[in-house]
Amino acid sequence: MRQIVESLMRLAAADAARYARSRQRNTALYAVAGVAGLTAYACLVTAGVIALARRSDPVLAACAAAAAFAALALLVIAVVAVLNRRERQWLRDRRSLYSNAMVALTGEALGPRGLALVGAALIAGLVMTGPADADPPGGDDGV
Predict the structure, then answer these.
(1) Mean pLDDT value across residues 66-80
(2) Which end of the chain is more exposed for a tag (fewer CB within 10 A), N or C?
(3) Positive or negative, the Cα torsion across 108, 109, 111, 112?
């Protein structure tokens, strides 16, 4: 049983490290996307100013630069979305692993009789509490 607990502790430490790396990665990528988006905005503003000032080819160049930075921002956001989807799937799988480990650990710690007692206590607690919105016996008319 001690080996199971030690394994779970190592697994939890590794998961915490992965979570921290994931948050750092997302922060960095969103920062890149934010800078690219602000650059696209600045280029569009510059293009508008140039269009009003000259109405010539420099406007097309500024619009092309703005479009390129906007495409870069959208690409980075798409990459972050795909990475986050993978991370959510990994978390679902990990939760299942922890749940199964807890069931095994509980079964190991309590044994079959202890597990049956815990199950009976949980069922009794659910039966005794009942639904939260149920009417009290006898109704509200006091009879």
Answers:
(1) 91
(2) C
(3) negative
- Token digits for 53? 């000032």
Residue spans of the domains in the chain: they are 2-129
Integer Rg of the chain from CA: 29
Supply 40's token pair: 């696209």
108 touches 57 (CB < 8 A): no
Give residues with Cβ within 8 angstroms of 47, minimum separation 6: 59, 62, 63, 66
What's the pTM? 0.44
Tens-place pLDDT, residues 104-127: 766 666 666 666 767 777 777 766
Nearest to 7 by CA among 74, 83, 76, 98: 98
Most confident residue range from 6-10, 16-20, 50-54, 105-109: 16-20
Q: Could you tell me if 94 and 15 are in contact, meaning their C-beta atoms sit under 8 angstroms apart? A: yes
The CB density around residue 36, as the number of other CB atoms within 10 Å, is 20
Separation between Cα atoms, residue 18 and residue 55, nearest integer Å: 52
